[in-house]
Write a structure and sequence with these properties.
This protein is mostly beta strands and 174 residues long. Helices cover 7% and strands 53% of the residues.
């Protein structure tokens, strides 16, 4: 079967509040819900843009991009907005029935290398924040701090202090 989608065409789902629209891009051309987006956008300075759309002048400031959550934070004419942007990969996973991959992405923490567990400063049931120390692993005479990749609650600790571990051995579960 031959695909009729141009190679450089990408499809997105963009959600603002409760409204979701389909956006397609081919090079610098965009369509929203199948209609061409007729706008003029100019970069004023870093993260600041001027947009002419339907005879209206708009000022857009990009505040930040939260990659794991796929959230673009912008200020449009002084008003804050958060856009959830699902890219082609997200749409494919959703189509395959794989939803909420972000929450299950780091449910298992595995040993990055063989070593010896020196310290485990967390306990089962403890809430941790992203970046908190989960355990200290000694490998090649160096102490390696294993940190939490996310906020969460510790469901299981499968190793104990003084235990030797192999690479990819399960250490902590969220």
């Amino acid at each position: 079967m031959v695909s009729t989608v141009p190679k450089n065409q990408k499809m997105y789902k963009v959600t603002l509040g409760k409204q979701t629209v389909s956006v397609e891009s081919t090079g610098n051309q965009y369509t929203v819900e199948g209609s061409p987006l007729e706008w003029d956008i100019r970069r004023i300075k870093e993260n600041h843009f001027h947009i002419l759309y339907k005879n209206r002048s708009l000022n857009l400031e990009v505040i930040g991009w939260d990659e794991p959550q796929k959230i673009l934070r912008v200020k449009l004419n002084g008003r804050m907005a958060e856009l959830e942007i699902k890219d082609p990969r997200d749409l494919l996973l959703e189509k395959l029935g794989i939803r909420d991959t972000r929450s299950s992405l780091h449910s298992d923490i595995k040993a990055p290398m063989p070593g010896l567990i020196l310290k485990i400063p967390v306990t089962i049931g403890q809430s941790v924040a992203k970046g908190d120390t989960l355990l200290v692993l000694e490998a090649m005479k160096m102490e390696n701090v294993i940190k939490s990749p996310q906020d969460g609650t510790i469901k299981a600790i499968t190793v104990s202090q003084g235990q030797s571990v192999e690479k990819n051995q399960l250490l902590v579960q969220f």
